[in-house]
Amino acid sequence: MKSSSLSDDGTPVEPKYSETALRILEAAERLFVELGLEATSLRLITQQAGVNLAAVNYHFRSKDALFEAVFARRFEPWARECLRELERLEARAAAGTARFDAEAVMMCYVRPALALSKDPSRGGALFVRLFSRVLVENHRVLRETLSRDWGHLVTRYTEALGRALPGLSAEEVAWRLHLGFSVMFHAFAGNDILKLFGRSAVSARDPDLIVKHVVPFVLAGMGAVPRAESSAP
Amino acid sequence: MKSSSLSDDGTPVEPKYSETALRILEAAERLFVELGLEATSLRLITQQAGVNLAAVNYHFRSKDALFEAVFARRFEPWARECLRELERLEARAAAGTARFDAEAVMMCYVRPALALSKDPSRGGALFVRLFSRVLVENHRVLRETLSRDWGHLVTRYTEALGRALPGLSAEEVAWRLHLGFSVMFHAFAGNDILKLFGRSAVSARDPDLIVKHVVPFVLAGMGAVPRAESSAP
DNA sequence: GTACGTTTAAAACAGACGTTTGAGACGCGG
DNA sequence: CCGCGTCTCAAACGTCTGTTTTAAACGTAC
């Protein structure tokens, strides 16, 4: 994933894609989500995009590079939005116009995730599902670049939650962040374990409903009092 | 996934595998977890198992059938253990020797998951990761059989949690179960979003540590007071 | 010892895969 | 008119896939 270059005023310059390249990107995004990287063939992508097979290797260099392009197009604006949310919260807390608590930190993730889920023009919930696949499948393609280019994002969230929950050890904070993000992330991705068993009464695809139920759940979890050690010193 | 037949006393009769078949099962399990179903070739499996390529199609019918066998061998004993835990809780609650609360219901899932994670001879954490991949990749192979053969398990958990949280609507109970299972499941599977960014301070692979942190988190979330509707009638 | 079902072995099958090639179509400034 | 990038197209490349075939080795019962 190459980071997009920045123009003079700092706003990202999206690489211009020809119409053919765009059709490939969109078909690929949908198919990668539904079938996964390995199971999606270039022939299927080009067929659904209505373009020639060789166009993929012309516009993108390879199948792997196409996957990176599909991912970066959606991920980078989203990650930048998360960063902006954190910075805005810090500014408002410094100005005394906002409380710096766990809910405020959490909303710095929920708001961008909600906005993304509701905006099909940016990939919508489809991209969150793609991200989820990438995570569980642990793709070699993205491991390196994600930690190099966006590792600081996680560091920022960790620091923020630590500041919002001052009584906790660093280890405890890391766990709450881990568990909180886990449930929020998989909820937005629509990963419903129970649905696999055909018995989920939850319509886990409506973003507003997700927020309504997931926010109190995670907030309660993050604020939970740690269990007293039963026999440790 | 064919269910194993039962002997007279109700204990499952595990199909006898020849040594060759067993070596295939074990190599396949490891590779399916690491690489996924599509990316794992039969040649790689047989090479690592030290057996001939054709042995797969002889002992198992096809690659898909091998995958089902790998999955069923681990899943069915686990699911039966979950069922037993629920039945034991109901019996003890009826006898007045246990409280039927959210924690008790939750532990009916945590105990089997913990036992499985710590027992390499039953697949250990490896199988939970395989299960997680199956879930996110939404495999055609397992969708039908899981809901047909094990859907009632989810129904049982839903009823149990509803009984443990009597003040809540059915929808609310379904959401708490969904979110609670989601975080527990992905925690046991070691799905660490933050690790993908190279910044997780959490050593999410120690089952005892997982339980220590995930139980208070989920308990707090499940017991959370629902948010008051802000403007609804 | 010979016949039998079971298991292994090596080789070959047809098809799908990602990628490359080389020729031709298009728009555009000269 | 030409010349030159940009882009599309059909065809072919070599490799890998799941599966099948053929033959040989094995243990066991008669």
Write the layout of secondary structure elements.
Two copies of one chain form a homodimer.
Chain A: H1 19-35, H2 42-49, H3 54-59, H4 63-94, H5 102-117, H6 124-137, H7 140-164, H8 170-189, H9 193-196, H10 207-222
Chain A binds a DNA duplex (30 and 30 nucleotides) through helix 3.
Shape of chain A: globular
Number of strands of chain A: 0
Distance between the termini of chain A: 48 Å
Oligomer: homodimer
Largest interface: A-B, 65 and 66 residues
Radius of gyration of chain A: 20 Å
Percentage of residues assigned to helices of chain A: 55-70%
Poorly predicted regions of chain A are 1-13, 229-233
Strand content of chain A: under 5%
The number of helical elements of chain A comes to 10
Q: Secondary-structure element order of chain A, as H and E?
A: HHHHHHHHHH
Averaged pLDDT of chain A, please? 86
